[in-house]
Amino acid sequence: MKKFNKNEIIEVVAEKEHLSKKEVKATVDCLFDLMRESLLDGQEVVITNFGSFVIKERKTRKGTHPKKHTPLEIKGGKTIVFKPSVALKEDIRK
Questions:
Q1: In what order do the strands lie in the sheet with 45-47?
Q2: What are the extents of the domains in the chain?
Q3: Is the pTM of this model over 0.70?
Q4: Labelling 79: which of 25, 35, 42, 44 has CA 20 to 30 A away?
Q5: How far is CA 39 from the centre of its chain?
């Protein structure tokens, strides 16, 4: 499976929409900054027909050390969760 990084997104969008890479880079950077700021402010980021990003709180839980096989406590904390839209789920299932 190939990774699709930010630079590749910029190149593809620039070529597809006949825009300069500089214009697309500014737009993509602005989009990612806006998403980051929204998440840090506790807001959910919803992209129609794609999905949503939200920060969730994880509880502290018990686990097992993988090498020593001894019990340990896994600390809780915040994490970002992506929930795909119904439309994206349907597209993936096809």
A1: 45-47, 51-58, 77-84
A2: 1-43, 44-94
A3: yes
A4: 25
A5: 11
Burial of 38 (0-12, 13-18, 19+ CB in 10 A): middle
Q: How far apart are CA 47 and CA 26, in angstroms?
A: 19
Report the residue count for the chain.
94
C-alpha closest to that of 53 among 84, 32, 27, 77:
84
What's the rounded mean pLDDT across residues 53-80? 94
Question: Which of 31, 36, 28 is closest to 11 using CA atoms?
Answer: 28
Among 50, 23, 45, 16, which residue's Cα sits nearest to residue 33?
A: 45
Q: What is the spatial distance between Cα 40 and Cα 21, in angstroms, rounded to a whole number?
A: 28
Look up the CATH number of domain 44-94.
Answer: 4.10.520.10
